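cron nightly-structures :: item 1 of 1
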Amino acid sequence: TRFNPANGVAAVAAAPLAFREPGFSFSISCMQTLLNEWRSAWSARALVWVLTRREVAARHAGTAVGVLWPYLQPLLTVAAYYLVFDVVFAMRLGEGAPTHAVGTFLVVGALPWMAFCDAVSRGMNSLIEAGSLLQKNPLPPVLMVARAVLASMVIYGPLLLLVALAYAPLHRFNLAVLAFVPLLVLQLVLCLLLGYLLAILAAALRDTVQLVGFLLSVGIYLSPILFPLSLFPEAWRWVLWLNPMTALVLGYQQVLLQGAWPPASVWLVGLLWLGGLALALNVVVARSRDQLVDWL
C-alpha cells in the first residue's frame, strides 16, 4: 500500500472515533424508536396543547358548572377525608407514622393516586377512542396518548400544588417543599410511558382494559396510601414496591408530612421504573408500528 502523509494523518486521527462509534451508535439506536416518538410529539406540541384543551373542555360539556367539575370532584373527595377522619372522628395513627392525623395522612397519598389512575386510564383508552381519527389521518399515535395524559395533569396538577401550599406552613415553608416539583415531573413521565404502553397493548388485546382497571382498583391497598409503610408486615413489604406509585407516594409524604427531602431510595426506584417502562415501550412501539392502526 502506498503511503500518503495526508491520508495517514487522517487515518490515525479517525482511528479512535472508528473504534468507539459502534458502541455509541448501539446505545443510541437501542432507544431510537422511542426517541422518534417523543420527537414527533414535541414537534407537534402546539397541536397537542389544542387537543388537550379540547379534551378538558369536552369532559363535562353541557353541565352547569362546566370545566370546574373535574377540579371539584377530587377536591371534595380529599376534603371529605379530612372532615371525616380528622374533624368528626379525630382518628389517630400509631407510632412510626409520618403524622398522627389520619385524614391529613390520607390526603397526601390519595390525591396523587387519583391523578395516577385518571391519567393511566385515559392514556390507555386514548388510542381506542381515537381509532377512527387515526385511520383517516396520518397522525402519530403518541399525540393521542399525550393529549389524554396531559389533560389529566392539567386538572390534577393545580390541585396537587394547592395541597402542597396548604401543607407547607406546617414546616415553616422548609426548602424541602421544592422537591415536590421534581416528584410531579416524575409522575407525569411515569404516566406518559405507562399510558402509552398500555394503550398499544389495549389496542392489540381489549382484555388489557379490564385487567388494568382491576389492578388500579386494588392497587391502592398495595401502596402506603391507606396506611404507613411501617404498619405493613416487614416480610411482605417488597410487594408494595411492585406498585409504581409507592416510591412517589413515600416522597410526597416525606416532603409534605415531615418537611424533609425524599431519601435516595425514592429517586432510585422512581428512575428504575421509568427506565424499565422506557425499554419495554421502545420494544412494543417498534414491533407494533405497522399493525397498530389495523388493530384500532
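cron nightly-structures :: done
Confidence is low (pLDDT under 50) at residues 5-27.
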